Amino acid sequence: MMSDQGTSGMGLHGRAPHERPSDRNALIRDPVVILAAPRSGSSALFAALSAHPDLWSRYRESNQLFEGPFDPILTGAPSNALTEDDLEEDTRGTLLRGFFDSVGNLERLPFTRHITLRGRGRRRISEAIALLTKPLKRPPIRIVEKSPKNTFRVPFLRALFPDARFIHLTRDPRGNIASLYRAWQMPGRYKTYPLPPGFRVVGYSGSEWSFVLQPGWDRLDGRTLVEICADQWRACNEACMRDLRSVGPEVAMRVRYEDVVAHPMEALGRIAGWAHLDPAPFERFAAGLEAIQATSKPHPDKWRGLQREIGSVLGQVEDVASTLGYS
Predict the structure, then answer these.
(1) Highest mean pLDDT pick, 17-31, 119-133, 206-220
(2) Which stretch of DSSP H or E encloses residue 191?
(3) pLDDT tens per residue, range 91-122
(4) Where does 12-323 sit in CATH, by number?
């Protein structure tokens, strides 16, 4: 069973946490993968973990790597879901090399102070960090990885990274769905795929889908925007619970966004102990984590501005919310 606390122990397939992986994964060992629905605070947690000197990072989501070979527009795939059957040997090598070459580690550079990458220039800056720290990169390295689309790729990721550790970050559905709802309506941001001709979203005038393409999304034709946002929250968290159900607590842990915000050092310290990381580098976040992708000032009751809309879909997510401890 997945742990809500995080413990140390043997890794996947009985391997000790710091044992060198097999030759095919000699570039990367023991990666930490954050799984979360979009708009759940995963960017802030990712930025904090990316500030640890033992974790190399792309400092941005890895969709570009995955959607080279697996872009639904090019492949005709019905969603962002991937399984171990999708991972061919040549694709494995390409992805492992892609991750290894594109990660950097700002903390390894002398006389630098950690900065949080954000905005349109993030890709260029992260590429520069990877280039600057390339001489310091000695395989195997540990990486931290994050993308909401990965919530539908757990079997694929376990095949790609056999010794991966997974953090399932959850957020109260009321605040999470409200944030999704507002972000969907922001022009030019968070758009992922063009809507099919004739596909109608009630209360939405845009022509593009936003965020994750969950399995079964096409059945939502004619639904309201808030129903689609609720379905995205449900689908992401449901997939994590299903695909991590059989792993041990040393492989997966669940962390609440609310706990990270209220007690950042306690939450980060728990993650450090579980992932066998020195907690000291996280002390810089004692005052709190930065809001990376916030569209307005964070507040726990901000969802109440959409109370009627959110109230209309709570029944749609009630079972998953209850399982995650949100009443």
Answers:
(1) 206-220
(2) strand 191-194
(3) 999 999 999 999 999 999 886 666 665 555 67
(4) 3.40.50.300
Given a contact cutoff of 8 angstroms between Cβ atoms, the answer to whether 147 and 75 are in contact is no
User: CA-to-CA distance for 161 and 271, rounded, in angstroms?
Assistant: 19
Domain boundaries, the chain: 12-323
- CA dist 16 and 277 (Å) reads 15
Distance of alpha carbon 77 from the chain centroid = 21
**Beta pairing class for 143-146 and 252-256:** unpaired
Burial of 73 (0-12, 13-18, 19+ CB in 10 A): exposed
For residues 262 and 175, what is the distance between their CA atoms, to the nearest angstrom?
Answer: 15
Helix axes 42-50, 264-275, angle to 10 degrees: 60
User: Which residue has tokens 């709570």?
Assistant: 314
Task: Tell which residue, 177, 182, 178, 170, has the closest CA to residue 326.
Answer: 170
Q: What single letter denotes the amino acid at residue 108?
A: R
State the Cα–Cα distance between residues 261 and 150, nearest whole angstrom: 23
- Beta-carbon contacts of 168 under 8 Å, excluding residues fewer than 6 positions away, are 2, 35, 36, 237, 240, 241, 244, 252, 253, 254, 255
